[in-house]
Amino acid sequence: MEINLLMSIIEQYGYLAIFFLLWLGIVGLPIPDELVVATGGFLVSIGLLDPVYSFLAGYLGVASGLTIGFLLGKFFGKPILQWLSKSEKMRHAVERSTELLRKYGTSALCISYLFPVVRHVVPYLVAMGGMTYRRYALLSYPIGLVWTIAFYLLGYVFGNHVEAIVVMIRHYGFYTLLVLVALLVIGLVIRKYVMGNRAYRAKGE
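User: That's the sequence. What structure does it adopt?
Assistant: C-alpha cells below.
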C-alpha cells in the first residue's frame, strides 16, 4: 500500500516530492525513508523519472534532513529531546542512540544508519554534545550518500518487490541490505559477462 501511495505522490509532484518526503523524515513522517529512495529508483527503472534528477532529489533530501537534525540539536536540543522522549518508541530510540554514542563515540554517526529512527536521533545528540558542523558533515554526508545509492539501486533492480525488501531490512537489520547489494553486484557482473559472450559469439558468426 505504501509504495502505491508513494508512486502516486511522486508521479504527481515529481522530484520535489522525493526531496520533501525525505526532508520531512527528520520530524517523523510515517513513511520509511528507505522506501522513498527505493521508489524513486523503481520509477526510474520504468521510465517515469530521470535517473540523475531522481537520485539527486533523494540524496539532497537525505542531506537536508541530516542538516536540519544537527541544527535543531544545536539550538533547541533539550526541549526537542524532552518532546521526543514522551513517546515510548522515540524514548527507546533516544536510549539506543545514547548507548551507541557512549560505546562508539562519533563513529556512531555512521553506525546509526543501521537502525531506523536512531539515525534521525543521533544528529540531535552529537550537536548537543558540542560536535562542530564541519566534523559532522565529514562523517554524515558520505555515509548518507552510500545509504542513498544502496536503496536507489534496490528500487531500480527489484521494482515492485522493494516494499517487502525494505520491511525485511528494517526488521532483520542492515546486514540484509549488504547481502542484497552483494547479490545485486554479482548479478550485474554475471549479466555483463553473459552479454559480453553473446556479443563475442555474434561477432564470430
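The longest helix spans residues 51-84.
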